[in-house]
Amino acid sequence: MFIELTEIVADGLGRVSNPERKIYVNSSKIQSIHSDSTERTIIEMRRSSIRVKESYEEVKALVG
Fold first, then answer.
1. Which residue from 21, 45, 52, 61 puts its CA 20 to 30 A from 10's CA?
2. pLDDT tens digits, the chain, 64 residues: what are they?
3. How far apart are CA 54 and CA 33, in angstroms?
4. CATH number of domain containing 7
5. d(Cα 19, Cα 6) in Å, to the nearest integer?
6. What is the pTM of this model?
7. Beta bridge partners of 43
């Protein structure tokens, strides 16, 4: 099952005009989720992590 989230795009080599974008994540590929110090959620995938705008509780309910 895929869930829709709002990814917070980190500044890379160039400036990003819109630091957020909608993404779809396959919930069966999620290894773990946890909140960070800014009340955002970090989703750990097999090879990378994604920082999303939704709260930990929202993501947990969607994955649950």
1. 61
2. 999 999 998 766 556 566 899 999 999 999 999 998 888 999 999 999 999 999 999 999 999 8
3. 12
4. 2.40.50
5. 10
6. 0.82
7. 33, 50
